[in-house]
Amino acid sequence: MTARLTGTRPRGILLLGLLALEMLAAVLVGPTGIAPGTVLQSLAHPESSSVVAAIVWQVRLPRIIGAALVGAALGLSGTILQALLRNPLADPYLIGTSAGAGLGATVVEIWLPQFGLMPVGAFAGAALAVLAASSASRMRGAGSVTIVLVGYALSVILGAVSSLLLAFDHTALLSVYFWFLGGLGGVTWGQILTLAVVLAVGLALGVYHRRELDALAMGESQAYYLGVDVQRTRIVLLLLAGLTTAVAVAASGLIGFVGLVAPHVARRLFGAAHDRSLLASAAGGAGFLVLADTVARSMPFGEVPVGIITALIGGPFFIWLILHTDRRHSP
Amino acid sequence: MTIAAQDVRFAYGQRTVLGNVSLGVTGPGLMALCGPNGAGKSTLLHVLAGRLRPQAGSVTLDGSPIGDLKPAERARRVAVVPQTVGQAFDLTVEDLVTLGRLHRLSVRDRLLLRSMSPEDEAAVSAALQAVDIESLRQRRLSQLSGGEQARAMIATALAQQADHLLLDEPTAHLDPAFRRDILEILARLAVSGRTVLIVLHDLMLAGLYADKVALLAGGRLEATGPVEDVLTEGNLTSVFRTPLRVERHPASGRPLVLPG
Lengths: 331, 260
Prior knowledge:
The structure holds two protein chains of two kinds.
Chain A: H1 2-28, H2 36-44, H3 51-84, H4 97-111, H5 118-137, H6 144-167, H7 170-181, H8 189-208, H9 210-217, H10 220-225, H11 230-252, H12 258-270, H13 274-296, H14 306-324
Chain B: E1 2-12, E2 15-26, E3 29-34, H1 41-48, E4 56-61, E5 64-65, H2 71-77, E6 78-81, H3 93-98, H4 107-111, H5 118-130, H6 146-159, E7 164-168, H7 176-191, E8 195-199, H8 203-209, E9 212-217, E10 220-226, H9 227-230, H10 233-240, E11 244-248, E12 255-259
Parallel strand pairs in B: 3-8, 3-9, 6-7, 7-8
Antiparallel strand pairs in B: 1-2, 1-4, 4-5, 9-10, 11-12
């Protein structure tokens, strides 16, 4: 035990340190070309009314903190989904959870736009989609790739339904379409608060169930014999994956592959057991999305949606994983 | 220390796998569950362990219905070793065996990210020691041989410290030497007070190590009792539909099943 902690703790601290440094570096980057010294100064003086302070505190910081929180939420969701579906190819974007959240949010935007219920709609959609994908994964003989294909089909169907609804409602189309593309530019301090609260609850619940995640990753029978309340735990964790995906989607639209890449990197660095890889995956997701967003807004020809950057990195990784996923992984 | 099935009937859809099976597994001791392919041995094991609910009949653990036990309570009293390691991710041996302590994880340990209490640590070490894989503690499962993986799975079940240990043919894919080692380990556990039930294809091993044998064929229990009474030429030839000879082992005097 102690031997394990001495091995893991420094690496964990190093990871968090790197994340903090990365976020700090990201604050220094921006199209207005403010000198690093000036930015750092205004960081220390949030009460200042200067233009620089406004840029740092109202534009850059919410965006970077938002990216970190969304990335962490997606990393957490991906870890849970990969364990529960027993599938190293699972990702909330690839198996339709994000599209479910998108559809739920679209429905709310069209019919109940005035009450600020979009995150609730996103959660309802994500929860239904994740339960559907998990039922597919429990069918006899469904291998890893089959599950991802079913999830992808689900994602396409849900996306098509969203588009169909939007085709009839041009007011909602404008607000929803750009949000769908995925971007962290519009993240507000209010959304950051929601993200932080949900992420804290999600991490606590994930840590609480970390051993159950290990057990369920070995199969439901195995988990049952180890004393896991399989039905209850599955539902709690699937809803948790849905919830973290939903708040991420509500804040920043559909961003893919963060939930796929982060758990793999975390397992590689910290081992497969969730008492280490779960938190590392959240931190890794945060680091990945902050980096991708910084790249997305530093393009010489202007900003591109961050989902493009994550897809350009995550997509090839996904193909590599499919080709290298050993048959042993097929449940 | 008894798991008892009473008039159990189990079917997958229309296909009846077990018809009116009654079997008491009483310990301490090592009972082998034998029978031809498709006899329903694994199904009976999973019914006895509470994972499969029979359509008729009952399964009780020391008198109370096994289905009524809370998951953690059940895992504290019955441990099961599956046929294969169903790992999706590559845990270390220590991570795997520590899962045997999952049912005892307290809320405090869960929230403090503490994986093991000193008792857990002791149970894990004892389990690794019992199957002689302490040196493999930090190895990943993918780096182990089939025999070592089987030992790690048994260690996980041992870490549960349950009185009942049920094994679903853990030796099926192993070399003869490994199979004997595993049976030696199980026989020692039985002597030390556990109730062990093992699904076993290998009749020779059953004869050499089991205290009791249950013979299953076509979803019915054909014979059950002390090894000498069950492993007879008459019983075996009728159950396996092929001539089998039973001799005495020259050293131990135990039944030695040979092709007839």
